[in-house]
Specification:
- This protein is an all-alpha fold.
- The chain folds into two domains: 85 residues; 47 residues.
- 78% of the residues lie in helices and 0% in strands.
- It contains five helices and no strands.
- α2 runs antiparallel to α3.
- The radius of gyration is 21 Å and the shape is elongated.
């Protein structure tokens, strides 16, 4: 295996940058969905005004979160050529390393399950929207 083919922590960071990038895109899409929904509210109605205010606050926060995730993803991708530092084998084989990685994998699986669970509902809403718009 040549040095350019060798897996390094920098390459790992770059490869994993897709996670914050995609999560950021998802959060940005959620913000846009809330923003467009808020335009349908009748602001002369007090309850609608409260909903509008809540959506505007959430849209601002979601856009900020999306921008932070995008920036983090870009930073991770820039580390692709980070030279591989020396690692202490004892520290890398500590049980806590396995435990933390298992937790990371579980969290990813839970996000995947959540997306699968909500996809059917979202697709039904899409079909209803398409029927009313077309």
């Amino acid at each position: 295996m040549s040095t350019s083919d060798q897996q390094t922590c920098g390459k790992g960071l770059a490869e994993n940058s897709i996670l914050p990038r995609k999560l950021g895109q998802l959060i940005a899409a959620m913000a846009e969905n809330l923003a467009i929904h808020s335009q349908a509210l009748d602001l002369t109605d007090q309850t609608s005004r409260a909903e509008y205010d809540a959506y505007q606050e959430l849209v601002r926060e979601l856009r900020q979160t999306a921008a932070q995730l995008k920036g983090t993803a870009e930073q991770m991708a820039r580390y692709r050529d980070l030279p591989m530092g020396r690692h202490e084998e004892k520290a890398m084989t500590h049980p806590r390393v396995l435990e933390v990685f298992e937790q990371f994998v579980r969290q990813k699986q839970q996000v995947m399950s959540l997306l699968e669970q909500t996809a059917a509902r979202d697709n039904e809403l899409l079909e209803m929207m398409r029927a009313h718009i077309h």
